[in-house]
Amino acid sequence: MSEVHSSKWLYIDVGNSRTKVAASDGTVVRVLGCIDTPEELTPWLEGVEAVLVASVGHDDWLSGLQRLMGRLAIPLFHAEVQESFGSIKNCYDNPLQMGVDRWLAVIGAAQLTDTAFVVLDFGTAINVEFVDSQHHYLGGWITPGISLMYKALFGGTSKVRGNISEHAGLAPGTTTQKAVDAGCLAAALGVLEQASVQGSKMAVNPTIFVCGGDYPRIQSLVRTKVQHEPDLVFLGMQKYLEQIRGQTD
Ligand SMILES: Nc1ncnc2c1ncn2[C@@H]1O[C@H](COP(=O)(O)OP(=O)(O)O)[C@@H](O)[C@H]1O
Ligand SMILES: CC(C)(COP(=O)(O)O)[C@@H](O)C(=O)NCCC(=O)O
Ligand SMILES: [K+]
């Protein structure tokens, strides 16, 4: 394992809105940034021993990445949802149906607590994961993320029109734009509140982890006790790669 710990790995998280990249030397995960095309990885690939990709986005992106890694002869691993990871048991009926970003966030969060926990990822979708004190993943919720809520309103009504905005406040709106802004934030905050209620049915005071690109939009309005861990998916990827490298070494 000492060989694995001294090497440099790259992690790629392909979401439905954007692709995030991080690097790790086996101990610390460092987020490098977001990219639009696989070629933009090039400056970060020097000295990289292996790349792990987790994708819930477009397959085209993966084909481009495969070609690039093939050209550079860098091993590329694809993260997949498993029936279990260490002591974490996946109770999804068909784990292959589950988004791999969700599973990796669960694996990442499990490194940070021994108790029951809930994960909320405020990305394109807001997905919520429930894990009990035996670290059994019980399943979760998938709801539209804040930007998707705006798009659903603009696309599914005749008269609600406006922009996806950066406004942060819950005061009753006196224009269509303000009403939509406050309403979408209230809906996202409501998911958090209900996740806390549901989580406390599973255990007393489960840790509530939050992450995702939209979390900063609601952060100042959150009254529930949460632990903000923006890099949960990458933490999960680090553990995951350690496991598969252990199997293949
Ligand atoms: N530069 C950006 N590009 C895309 N989305 C962004 C950006 N900055 C903030 N966001 C917000 O973050 C959300 C995406 O969060 P993220 O966690 O990256 O999602 P995903 O994993 O689904 O791609 C978007 O819905 C958007 O509202
Ligand atoms: C729920 C998701 C859309 C979240 O994607 P994201 O917001 O991170 O882009 C993704 O994990 C997914 O496509 N899941 C497949 C269905 C499932 O998890 O059951
Ligand atoms: K998400």
Automatic annotation (TrEMBL):
On whether Flavoprotein is a keyword of this UniProt record, the answer is no
Specify the superkingdom. Answer: Bacteria
Q: Which UniProt keywords are listed?
A: ATP-binding, Coenzyme A biosynthesis, Cytoplasm, Kinase, Metal-binding, Nucleotide-binding, Potassium, Transferase
Q: Which GO terms describe its molecular function?
A: kinase activity
Assembly and partners are described as: Homodimer.
Which organism does this record belong to? Bowmanella denitrificans
Q: Which family does it belong to?
A: Belongs to the type III pantothenate kinase family.
Where does it localize? Cytoplasm
Keyword Membrane appears in the UniProt entry: no
Kindly state which reaction or reactions the protein catalyses.
(R)-pantothenate + ATP = (R)-4'-phosphopantothenate + ADP + H(+)
Which Gene3D superfamilies does the record match to this protein?
Answer: 3.30.420.40
What protein name is recorded for this chain? Type III pantothenate kinase
Q: How is the cofactor bound?
A: A monovalent cation. Ammonium or potassium.
Residues noted as binding ATP in the record, renumbered to the chain: 13-20, 124
Q: Which cofactor does it need?
A: NH4(+); K(+)
Where on this chain does K(+) bind? 121
UniProt xrefs under PANTHER family: TYPE III PANTOTHENATE KINASE
Task: Explain the purpose of this protein.
Answer: Catalyzes the phosphorylation of pantothenate (Pan), the first step in CoA biosynthesis.
